[in-house]
Write a structure and sequence with these properties.
Helices cover about 55% and strands about 5% of the residues. The chain has five helices and two strands. It has helices at about 1-10, 20-35, 45-60, 65-75, 90-95; strands at about 105, 115. The chain has a two-stranded antiparallel ribbon with strand order 1-2. The model has no long low-confidence stretch (mean pLDDT about 80).
Length: about 120
């Protein structure tokens, strides 16, 4: 990752002593997650696995509790050490930089939500 920073600094004339902006840091975290294997016996990246898992959660309407239990089971089955986030909160933190947020809309008096 340091080589990428150096290449960007040279190309855009950035000072290496200037701290990176929040957006740049988030971009490099995403880049690292897209290249980092989930565990030593797979080529599937952390980011690819998490985004696919979140897509399945959305498609089949898993609750956050169900998602967390599923992630816990998968984590227990993976060889150690692995880089699978431990819950929905950690997965959201990883993917929030992708710009795939959502907005909750209160739909009725019975606490129903539309995403």
């Amino acid at each position: 990752m340091d080589e990428m920073l150096e290449a960007l600094q040279l190309e855009f004339g950035l000072n290496s002593e200037d701290p990176p902006t929040k957006e740049v840091e988030e971009f490099f975290k995403l880049l690292q997650a897209s290249e980092e294997p989930l565990h030593e016996h797979t080529k599937l990246s952390v980011l690819a696995f998490v985004t696919r898992l979140i897509a399945i959660k959305s498609k089949y309407f898993f609750s956050n509790k169900c998602f967390n239990d599923l992630v816990q089971l998968i984590g227990d089955a993976f060889p150690q050490p692995h880089k699978l986030p431990k819950d929905m909160y950690q997965c959201k933190r990883l993917t929030k930089s992708l710009g795939m947020g959502y907005e909750k809309i209160d739909m009725c008096t019975y606490n129903c939500m539309l995403f």
